[in-house]
Write a structure and sequence with these properties.
By secondary structure, this protein is mainly alpha-helical. It has helices spanning 2-32, 39-46, 50-56, 60-82, 89-104, 107-118, 123-147, 155-175, 182-209. Helix 5 runs antiparallel to helix 9. The longest helix has 31 residues, at 2-32. It comes from Sphingosinicella soli. This is AcrR family transcriptional regulator.
């Protein structure tokens, strides 16, 4: 019994150390950018040694994959809480778009954006992240389709709206580095919701007539 408890405690301790390193990397990337977030700075922020970092992650890219997975897990969990298929469509769409935006503009998701942007000039990072991006795309699409599973509309339309939603929000996330007002932010979010509602309404009417 004591041995089992010791093993669990050790596993918990290792998981805690890994989480601290990932969260430190997220904070560091959000503060100084992907390129400047060195292992030394991350370890200093985490209050851990370089040996601890090397024990948990094979290299810098391994840590970046862990950061992306951690951030996306939090993002997906928030969306599941904020919106459900039981809600009226306008409220459901409004809530999922605003919940996604609130997550993307937060510090954690800015780290994810920084890493993804860095892949444009880092082919090795792109290849290491490709499996994660594929898993994220598959999972987020499944969640999106489930959220709107009550609608009699083509799957292709739902997929397209998901892609437009996240592309628009990621673009907004990048643009907040420039002059950006809350009023304009709300305008952009409302614009997408209204456009999506119009497209879905038109598709439903077309389906009923056919």
């Amino acid at each position: 019994m004591t041995t089992n408890r010791t093993r669990r405690t050790q596993a918990e301790r290792l998981a805690s150390t890994r989480r601290i390193l990932v969260e430190a990397a997220i904070a560091e990337i959000g503060e100084v950018g992907y390129a400047n977030a060195t292992g030394t700075l991350i370890c200093s922020r985490a209050g851990l040694t370089r040996g601890a970092l090397n024990h948990h992650f094979r290299d810098r890219m391994d840590l970046m994959v862990a950061v992306c997975e951690y951030v996306y897990a939090s993002f997906a969990a928030t969306l599941r809480v904020e919106a459900s298929v039981d809600m009226p469509l306008p409220e459901r769409l409004e809530r999922v778009v605003r919940a996604a935006w609130s997550q993307l503009e937060a510090g954690n998701n800015r780290a994810l954006v920084e890493i993804i942007v860095a892949t444009r000039h880092d082919p090795a990072l792109l290849e290491r992240l490709r499996p994660f991006v594929q898993r994220m795309d598959h999972h987020s699409l499944a969640e999106w389709l489930q959220l709107f599973s009550d609608l009699a509309v083509p799957r292709r339309l739902l997929e397209g709206l998901r892609d437009q939603c996240y592309s628009s929000l990621y673009g907004m996330c990048l643009m907040t580095s420039f002059e950006w007002t809350k009023e304009y932010e709300n305008y952009q979010l409302r614009l997408f919701v209204e456009m999506a509602l119009a497209r879905l309404s038109a598709a439903q009417q077309k389906r009923r007539k056919s």
